[in-house]
């Protein structure tokens, strides 16, 4: 489960930032590959890892 939490946290860290300090200036950086594709994919993969960790039978 710790691996899933780490993957989800990494996804949210990659989503952070991209805003503009000046509200009158639009920053195109918010629409880059990292924030639109990579970070949400990591969050979904992390959630899948968490579901697997919860549903998997233990070895005992």
Q: What can you see in these coordinates?
A:
- The chain has one domain (2-55).
- The mean pLDDT is 91.
- Helix 1 runs antiparallel to helix 2 (33-55).
- It is built from 2 helices and no strands.
- The chain starts with a helix and ends in a 5-residue tail after the last helix.
- With 60 residues, it is mainly alpha-helical.
Features:
mainly alpha, 2 helices, 60 residues
Major β-sheet annotation: none
Give the structural class: mainly alpha
The residue fraction in helices comes out at 55-70%
Radius of gyration: 16 Å
| pLDDT < 50 stretches | none
Strand residue percentage:
under 5%
In total, how many beta strands? 0
Distance between the termini: 18 Å
Whole-number mean pLDDT: 91
* Shape annotation: rod-shaped
How many helices? The count is 2
Write a brief caption for the model.
By secondary structure, this protein is mainly α.
Layout of helices and strands, plus pairs?
Elements (H helix, E strand, L loop, with lengths): L1 H14 L17 H23 L5
Helix pairs in contact: 1-2
